[in-house]
Amino acid sequence: MTYQAPVRDYAFLLRDVLQLERYANLPAFADASMDTIDAILEEAGKFTSEVLAPLNGVGDKQGCVWSPDFTVKTPDGFKDAYAKLVEGGWPALGSDPAYGGQGLPHVVNVAFSEMSSSANMAFSMYPGLTHGAYSAIHVGGTQEQKDLYLPKLASFQWAGTMNLTEPHCGTDLGLLRTKAVPQGDGTYKITGQKIWISGGEQDLTENIVHLVLARIEGAPQGTRGISLFIVPKFIPDANGNPGARNSVKCRGLEEKMGIHGNATCVISHEEATGWLIGEENRGLNLMFVMMNEARLGVGLQGIAQAEAAYQAAAAFAKDRLQGRSLTGPKNADGPADPIIVHPDVRRMLMDAKAIVEGGRAFMAWTALHGDLSHASPDEAVQQKGRDYMALLTPVVKAFLTDRGFNVCSDAMQVHGGSGFTEHFPASQYLRDVRIALIYEGTNGVQALDLVGRKLAADGGRGVMSFFAELDAFIAENEKDESLKPFTAGLATAKAELQEATMWLMQNGLANPDNAGAASTDYLHLFGLTALAYMWSLQAKAALARIAGGDKDPFYETKLVVGRYYVERLLPETSSRLAKLKTGSDLMMKLPAEAF
Questions:
Q1: Nearest-angstrom CA–CA distance, 196 and 166
Q2: Which one from 307, 357, 440, 496 is the annotated catalytic residue?
Q3: Is 593 a catalytic residue?
C-alpha cells in the first residue's frame, strides 16, 4: 500500500467550499489563485508520497541514535529528504516575503503540512516546530533578531525548537527552575534542564535555534516571572553564520512508544548564552504564539495519521478474503469474499472517512479564519477570526486527535491479527498518533481551557458568534430539500451545544468541579457540531457542482459520506449532553484512598 495524498479533496475544499478566490483582492491572497494552488497541491502530493512516505517505516525501525559527543544521527534517508524539502521551497510557503518566504495564506500551507505528516509524522515534526519558532520571533523579536534568524528559519536552513518542559513540571510552567543571569552586555547565561524536546538535536540543519523559557534572577515566582530566550546551538558570528558552539547539550534520547524517527531530547543548558526575546517576565505570552500554532498542528497530525491509517485499512479490506457476504457471494469465483463486503468493516471505514474528511475541512476552515484575522481590511472580520482562533484551538487539538486515534485503532481492527504485527503499517500509525493526545497540553487540559477560559472570554463573544453563524446558515438553507438532512442535523446539534453552554454557565460558576467534570463531554459535543457544519458546507458545495452538470462521482460520494456522518455519528451529541448535565457529585464523591 502506497500513501496517496488527498490532492482532490483539498482542491475541492479550497475552491468550492472555502472559495479562496473570493479573497483575491486582499494582498495576502493575491498570489493564491486556484491555478497556483492546484500546482502546489499536485507537487506536494508527489513530494510527500514519493520522498517522505517511503522513509516512514525506515524511521520507525531505525529510530535516532545518540552519541556521547552529544550529537544525534537521524534515520537513513532523512538527511537527503530534508535537503530536498529545503530545495523545493516547501518550508517557505506561508512565511513573510520580507524574510524569504512565499507569503501564501496559512490555509494553503495546511494542505502541505497534512500531506507531510500523513506520509511521515516523525520527519514532519522537524520543520513543523521550526515554523513555530519562526512565528514567535516574527511576533516578538527585535528587528535585529528578525533579520538574523527569520531568513534562516523560513528557509529551514536552521531549525527551531521550544524548550518548556522540565523533569519536575510539564503543564504547570510556573514551577520551572531554569534560570537566566544577565551578563551586562545584553546576553544572559541560561542554566537548567529541559526534557521531551522534539528535534532538540539532529544532523539535518547547520544550526538549531532553541526558544527557552527561564526565570531571570530576582523575577517573581510563578508564571508572572517567566521570560523567553533565544539560545542557538551555534552562536552566530558577525556574518550571521554558525560560529562558536554554545553550551547546549543533548544528554540523551527518550525511548518512545512511537515517532521513533524524531529525536526527543533531554537538553542541558549549562550557562548557555541566550538573548531575551520580548519583554522580561512576559515570556509565556510569546511562547503561546508558538504553542497555539503547535496545538493546531497537533490537531492536524490526528487527521493526518487517521488518513494514512484509513488508506491502509481500505486497501487491506479490498484485498483480504474471508467469509461470505450476508446477502450472497460477491466473489463467486473465489474461495471467499473480500472483507469490505461485511457491514461492520464498512462501519469502521465509513466512520474513518467521515471523521477524516470532516476534520480536514474543520482544519482548513479554522486556518482560513486565522488568515483573515490579520489579512482582512474589515475590523469585524479580523475580530471574528481572532475570536475563532482562541475559541477553536483547543477543540481542533483535542477533538481531532481523540478521533484520529480512534480511526487508527479501527484501522488496526480492520487488519485483524495482521494489524498487530509489524508486517503491516497499522501498528506504526497507532503508536505514532498516540502522543498527539498528550503533547502541547493533554486533551483534558484543552477541555479545561475551553470551558474555563475560552467560553467566557470577552463576554462569550466567540461562542455567540459561532452560534450566530450556524443559525444564519440553517436559516439561509432550510428550504432547500436536498440539504434538509444536513441542516436538520446541524440545527439539533447546535441546540444541544447551546443548551450545554448554558448549563455550564449556570452550574460551572457555582461549583468549578461541575465545569471540570463536564469539560471533555462539552469539547466533544462542540467538535461533533463543528464537523456537522463542515459537512453541511461540503454538501452544499457538492450539490452546486451536481446541479451545474458535473458528473464526477466525487461529489455524490461526498453526499453519501456526509449523510452517514449526520445519521450515524452526530447523534452522539445527545449522549454527551446527557452525561455532562450529571455534574461532578458522583465523580468526586469517593475519597482518594478508594481508588
A1: 8
A2: 440
A3: no
